[in-house]
């Protein structure tokens, strides 16, 4: 089974220099857990509702003071260099990478363009459908 059959084509993005507060607002309004972080046309990271509080605890300025909430940018808290897949790649490979990396979302690119996203929820859906079809 190819990734193109399970990916969500309605991928949501945010600029790397956007404020984290905007990322949180976007995720809450759209009822999603991940945003693909872009620098122009390039995918540079993923920011998630789970990663924000984890990474926030480690965020200090050069004097070891915590940054002001209003100053924190997406690039400060994102997970950089996400694992990227192509739509023709096998779902099994993505599943194994999800297990190995513990990442919750994977951007899907085709010819240098972001065309979708696969999340752990999408992978659970595939697994559930496979189990239900056996019954």
TrEMBL record:
Q: Which InterPro entries match?
A: CBS_dom (IPR000644), CBS_dom_sf (IPR046342), Diverse_CBS-Domain (IPR051257)
- Keyword Protein transport in the entry? The reply is no
Source organism superkingdom:
Bacteria
Q: Supply the alphabetized keyword list.
A: CBS domain
Against SMART domains, the record matches this protein to:
CBS
Native source species: Uabimicrobium amorphum
Q: What is this protein called?
A: Membrane protein
User: Which intervals hold domain CBS?
Assistant: 7-62, 78-133
